Amino acid sequence: MHREQERYAESQLSSVVIGCAIEVHRALGPGLLESAYRQCLAYELSQIGLHVEQEKSMPIVYKDVRLDHGYRLDLLIENELVIELKTVDLLTDVHTAQLLTYLRLGNFPLGLLINFQVKMLRQGIRRLAYTPL
């Protein structure tokens, strides 16, 4: 299946990513390392023609100084959708804050927090939007 040239709307893009994540989760189940899910999800998304960047560096800009502080996005899809992957028993506010920080730092409109350590993946997905002030 190849993607057409026009861009997905944000909601369509997130739906496509969620569908691919569910496919990866069905095949692998819970219990693996985050890096395994990241690589498999990146593979699935690239197979359908999406531009995927793994472990994209996210610098902090402070008073016109760029600080490479070591923040890395798990996945950046089509340079607009941030995917933060987890393999934890329970998603917390800290995980949500981490994704919101990435959205703010990169001025990205949308993010998905996906926890693969659940029985049904839909239970482990949070969709977050960012609107600049």
Can you describe what's shown?
This protein is α+β, with helices and mostly antiparallel strands. It has 3 helices and 7 strands. It has helices spanning 10-28, 34-47, 93-106; strands at 52-57, 60-62, 65-67, 72-77, 81-86, 110-115, 125-129. The strands form 2 sheets. The protein has a 5-stranded mixed sheet with strand order 1-4-5-6-7, with helices on both faces. A two-stranded antiparallel ribbon has the order 2-3. Helix 1 packs across helix 2. The N and C termini lie far apart (38 Å). The model is unreliable at 1-6 (pLDDT under 50).
Query: Any idea what the shape is?
Result: globular
Estimated share of beta-strand residues: 25-35%
Total of helices: 3
Percent range for helical residues?
Answer: 25-40%
Radius of gyration of CA atoms, rounded to a whole number:
15 Å
> What about the largest sheet?
5 strands, mixed
Structural class: alpha+beta
* Cα separation of the termini: 38 Å
Strands, count: 7
In spatial order, strands of the major sheet run 1-4-5-6-7
In round numbers, the mean pLDDT is 90
Q: List the uncertain runs.
A: 1-6
Order of helices and strands: HHEEEEEHEE
Quick synopsis:
The protein is an alpha+beta fold and 133 residues long.
Question: What is the fold's blueprint, element by element?
Answer:
Blueprint: H1 10-28, H2 34-47, E1 52-57, E2 60-62, E3 65-67, E4 72-77, E5 81-86, H3 93-106, E6 110-115, E7 125-129
Parallel strand pairs: 5-6
Antiparallel strand pairs: 1-4, 2-3, 4-5, 6-7
Helix pairs in contact: 1-2
